[in-house]
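If your schedule permits, I should be very grateful for your opinion on a structural question. Kindly check, if you would, that the fold set down in the tokens agrees with what the sequence suggests. Thank you for your consideration; the sequence and its tokens are set out here:
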Amino acid sequence: MSRRGPWALAIQPWMVAAVLGSVNSAAWAAPTTRDFDKAESSPTQPRAVSDDAWPDVARVLREAAMRQPDVVAAQAEARGAEARRIGADKALLPTLGVSAGASVLRGQIFGAFAGGAAGVQPGGLGGLPLSQDQVWPNVGVTLNQPIFDGGKAWALGDAARHQQEAAVLRAERGRRHAVYSAWRTWLDLLDQEAGQLALDARRASARERVARSRLERTVGSGSELAVLQAEADLQRQEDERRHEADALILLRQEISRRYGGELLSGRPGSLRVRWPEGLLEPSEGGLLDSQAARADREAAEAVARSRGGARWPQAAAFVTATAAGRDLGLTTVLGGASVTWQPVDLGRQDAAEAEARAVAEQARAREADVALETLRELQQASLRRKQAAARTGHARLALQLAWRAREEAEARRNSGASDTLESLVREEAVVTAQVAVERAERDQIRADLALAEAVGLPPEELLVSAVKPEKTP
């Protein structure tokens, strides 16, 4: 067992390979592209049009995500950690101090001691009478060089480097998450827009039912209860449509505030995901959460080592040069070494070391927990991707059945065997099935984005492009 004890758990390449290998081979077939190429010919897939004024949603969202406050704060924290690391690396370098001052000497006091001094003539100093006050400037320069600190500075330097590494990893993790979240928010907008179409179709069918029930009541073949039920259903559809419209307005406002209003200048377009060439495998630093937890653990262990170094004596060498006197003619040079040691501190050092060891133990536990959580996210993302592909296939099959039922209803209406209400009901079913297919395809895109984020794929390497909507006639 490693020296890290029972918490010695980290993400290993074979763990990720086992998770990714558990995915159905059909879900990983053709890694350079997914089934969106097949969906381009589907009536529910937005058709790309030539419109230079329409913004590239994928690019704009990716750039706007970099301006989010949490991303900016994480990057600032990383810069602060870098500055702390630079300061810790210079802890053992020499320091140079400069001091300057002035002293006022009373003439009567100075004369009592200067009368017999060498070079001092009775009655004065430098031509000045001793009865006057003398102002003596002084200038000093001190050079201090730490020699030994029990390894405390080196340990703190290691801790600062690991803390910087963790801050940089978290900043990159936050940046990637912001981009993926922006893409998911755009997919939510598309779901809301598509939901409006389904509600409009259901509302049209509800209005036709109300009109028909009233007509049947007038001719005597219907009842007042049937009219009330149809009107209640229409009111429910109207309320639901109004609530969904309010939710859509709020979502569009949020997108406008976060990512810019230019995205909402026209009809929203969808997104397409293409996998990069080769199998999707995490790189050495791809699993950023696990890497950051490892850096936190190493930083905590380095801090614990620095607490132990505080028990040793601290040694330093120094050289001090001073110049004093009216013409700074009195100079002194002093050199030596100093040793500082505190053998008795009434248990404060023991408490500091115990606290540092406890923090290091917590960091090791968090590293193991993050490793397990990362594997769990990989498994869930892989499973959701396979399930989304199955739901998309089922939704497309239901759409084909709805088309066939609508064609049969149109044929019966043309032959006089049915009325307009049946055609409206079949049309409602077709619209609902089309919306279901679009949502299933967007769920599949969400699953792709979740899996790419789980394996640590940078957004720039995942080929996400925008599909322009059809022009409004």
